[in-house]
Amino acid sequence: MSIVYIVSAPSGSGKSTLVNELFKMVPRLDFSISYTTRPPRGSEKNGKEYFFVSREEFEAMVAADEFLEHAEVFGNEKVRGEYYGTARRFLREAEERGNDLVLDIDVQGASQVKEKMPEAVSIFILPPDRENLEWRLRNRGLDSEAVIRRRLDTARREIENYSKYDYILVNKVVEQSADELKNIVLAERLKNKSGAELSEEEKRSVETAHACRLEQARERVQPILASFAPQAVKST
Ligand code: 5GP
Known about the structure:
Layout: E1 4-8, H1 15-25, E2 29-31, E3 34-36, E4 50-52, H2 55-63, E5 67-73, E6 82-87, H3 88-97, E7 100-104, H4 107-116, E8 121-126, H5 130-139, H6 145-159, E9 167-170, H7 174-189, H8 200-211, H9 214-228
Parallel strand pairs: 1-7, 1-8, 2-7, 3-4, 8-9
Antiparallel strand pairs: 3-6, 5-6
Helix pairs in contact: 1-7, 5-6, 7-8
The protein binds guanosine-5'-monophosphate.
Guanosine-5'-monophosphate (5GP) binds next to strand 5, strand 6 and helix 4.
């Protein structure tokens, strides 16, 4: 059985970089390429970052029960949200190859997958605080002011869901967060081994992953949550 890793994060938290790093470091991992109705951005290519489809095509896939989960996600300039969905076939194909599968999906999708597959491993990536997220969103220069406002507002609501996840990463230093993500993935693969069977390196993975578990991270998360609370926001 493949292990399914769900990775969620507010837009601008550095999730794509961390997931890319993960794939460089860990073998036997597949990435689930989602379907979306939003238009491609920048250098995005159909079939690489996403499969870009029309609303009609997406709705036909929903009717044919082709999705493991799907959701309407805001974050585009349009008032109407865009559809995003994970095709079931990615899980089947990962299983056939004997690989594990990474899903980069939002909090709505994550809770749908967890309901269907409670054994899926969920990881939430947090920015160090609101100011840092705002800086990153502005710095990447992809979004208009209105979209940045919307993304920050969405981030606040998403972050409130952190406690539904198994692991929490606070993305302060990319190299460190990438190492933590790698060790979470490796430690989950070692679940069936007893402590005595683990090599020194495997023990380090298990310890690093343990420190990122929700129960260990709760205190670290409080100041981040506080920075997103409406009364803490100076500039809106
Ligand atoms: P973006 O448009 O910036 O690439 O992604 C916007 C949001 O949609 C991100 O939070 C991303 O994780 C989420 N997303 C991408 N693919 C899927 C999917 O298949 N299902 C769900 N529920 N969310 C997705």
